[in-house]
Amino acid sequence: MTKRTFLFVVLTVSGTMIAVSKAEDPAVAKAFTDNEIVPDVLSKAPGALVKVSYTSAGAEVNLGNELTPTQVKDEPSVSWEAEPGALYTLVMTDPDAPTRAEPKMREWKHWVVINVPGSDVAAGETVAEYIGSAPPQDSGLHRYVFLVYKQSRGRMRWSEPKLSNRNPNRAKFRVNEFAAKYHLGSPIAGNFYQATYDDYVPQVYATLTETK
């Protein structure tokens, strides 16, 4: 059985003390550290788990399990414990481009959705459309990391170009710099899987037709 640590926050509402508990899952921090996402991507692991399901393939993301590019080709269903009325940002990033041993293109941005009300990703604003895993042949396993940030300053104003799923100009992304720029703080939840090349990858490359 997984042990969980509960943090208790005391709020004062009209003079009444209310205790609100929030569960932390130590398995998340352990997996992020053991797989070196800390420090390759983050300085500190998130405390909670993001649920990620590739329903059409019958596949679930589970803290570093191996999936195939074929299984993850379609946009997944993603959910997390959200506070009522809060907005969130969802990011999916690959720190192992082109290889984990020589990540000269670290990170590759796969998906970014901002202004997500609660965990209703479909109601958020997609600023980088989803592209599934496409690790180069003979590049070994890549880590694909999902991170959720709470937007503490409310609705985010996006002034940068939005990327379609045909746009390959996503290399050298830095999620830490992105979070700092938009005042997102540390991620509240995360998950990741690993994948290596399969024969679906050339089909992904064939769709990346935009040059700007």
UniProtKB/TrEMBL annotation:
Which branch of life, at top level? Eukaryota
Mark the transmembrane ranges: none
Question: Which range is the signal sequence, renumbered to this chain?
Answer: 1-23
Protein's UniProt keywords contain Signal: yes
Q: Which InterPro entries match?
A: PEBP (IPR008914), PEBP-like_sf (IPR036610), PEBP_euk (IPR035810)
Instruction: State the UniProt keywords alphabetically.
Output: Signal
**Pfam families with a match to the protein in the record:** PBP
Segments forming a coiled coil = none
Which PANTHER family does the protein's record reference?
PHOSPHATIDYLETHANOLAMINE-BINDING PROTEIN, PHOSPHATIDYLETHANOLAMINE-BINDING PROTEIN 4
Output this protein's name: Putative phosphatidylethanolamine-binding protein
